[in-house]
Predict the structure of PadR family transcriptional regulator.
Amino acid sequence: MISMRRRRRLRHIILSILSSKGAMTGAQIMREIERVTQGFWKPSPGAIYPTLDKLLEEGYVVISKVDGAQKFYEITELGREFLSPKHQLETIIEEVVSDLRFIMENKDELDQELKDKLKKVLQEVMSSLDRS
């Protein structure tokens, strides 16, 4: 579950960078992620390039230029839609639903304190949704 979230986060970061910076190579994207995280995270080529391949396959990016062995990736309109708040909310809701199903399947592992905490948050969510 965690690695799936990391992959989604990496996809979002790559698309955000391409949206703001324009066409870039995989190596440039890695350096930019390292720069914006102030050195806390430098994704490996083994994470970047499969993610770029998946984004390419899904139509979120295109290869806009090839210079020798370097491919320059550019965000598409579909990629920009992926970055929209509506799409991000849909993704988060899917993750929350998945997490809640996991909790339901493993509810016997929860102590009373965690059950109470979860109930409180769920009641707040339901109340908030009823008001909107």
